[in-house]
Design a protein that fits this description.
This protein has 90 residues and is an alpha+beta fold. Helices cover 34% and strands 26% of the residues. It has one domain (3-85). It contains four helices and six strands. It starts with a strand and ends with a helix.
């Protein structure tokens, strides 16, 4: 089981956001998110978007901090990555 979180660098809605993923299963990711009070509406195809002010709590709760590149590589290797084409409905 590994939950990964990258740097909060994505600006939107007056803050910056990070990505939270699992490299094992979506079930694991949803369970981790639920335990930590992350709303399901934050799920975007293969990751949760989480605001910067939640990073410390999520890392303390077991999420492994990684770079965005490492997160993308591990998500791809896991087979859980959803392509940008699918996300855009192409």
């Amino acid at each position: 089981m590994t939950i990964l979180i990258d740097e909060a660098i994505w600006p939107a809605h007056g803050t910056v956001w990070a990505h939270l993923v699992s490299d094992a299963s979506y079930a694991e990711l949803h369970a981790f998110a639920a335990v930590h009070g992350i709303p399901r509406r934050g799920f975007d195809h293969d990751h949760y978007d989480v605001p910067a002010d939640r990073l410390d709590d999520l890392v303390a709760g077991g999420a492994e901090p990684v770079t965005g590149l490492e997160l993308a590589r591990r998500l791809e290797r896991s087979g859980l990555r959803v392509s940008q084409r699918v996300k855009r409905g192409l």
